[in-house]
UniProtKB/TrEMBL annotation:
Biased composition (Basic and acidic residues): 80-103
Functional note: Ferredoxins are iron-sulfur proteins that transfer electrons in a wide variety of metabolic reactions.
PANTHER family, per the entry: FERREDOXIN, OXIDOREDUCTASE
The protein's name: Ferredoxin
One matching Pfam family: DUF3470
Domain 4Fe-4S ferredoxin-type: 1-29, 30-59
One GO MF term attached to the UniProt entry: 4 iron, 4 sulfur cluster binding
Lineage: Bacteria, Pseudomonadati, Pseudomonadota, Alphaproteobacteria, Hyphomicrobiales
Keywords: 3Fe-4S, 4Fe-4S, Electron transport, Iron, Iron-sulfur, Metal-binding, Repeat, Transport
Organism listed in the record: Maritalea myrionectae
Length: 104
């Protein structure tokens, strides 16, 4: 499966939702997650994310992000259409420690 990681937080560009063939993105206040059981591993979303926040879960050290995607995809609403990203998205692109500061 692919998962959404830290740099999505507060950037939330939403280009990813438009290309997913199975509509498996879910929306929280500050970021999106992928439902790992619904993702068909097509990889189409990965290059679409301007924040490079989408990665395959086979990369090392991503256990906690897989847990977060799994947990919140069950709670947050499905999102299938892109809206305008936050006005200050670029300011937060690449910022360190976003999870601790802003995750909700
Ligand atoms: Fe959707 Fe494919 Fe990305 Fe999985 S890898 S979230 S199926 S676009
Ligand atoms: Fe987040 Fe990238 Fe999608 S910033 S909302 S994963 S396009």
């Amino acid at each position: 499966t692919y998962i959404v990681t830290d740099n999505c937080i507060k950037c939330k560009y939403m280009d990813c939702v438009e290309v997913c063939p199975v509509d498996c993105f879910y929306e929280g206040e500050n970021m999106l997650v992928i439902h790992p059981d619904e993702c068909i591993d097509c990889g189409v979303c990965e290059p679409e994310c301007p924040a490079e926040a989408i990665v395959p879960d086979t990369e090392p050290g991503l256990e906690s992000w897989l847990e977060i995607n799994t947990k919140f995809a069950e709670v947050w609403p499905n999102i299938t259409e892109k809206r305008d990203p936050p006005a200050d998205a670029e300011k937060h692109d690449g910022e360190k420690g976003k999870f601790e500061k802003y995750f909700s």
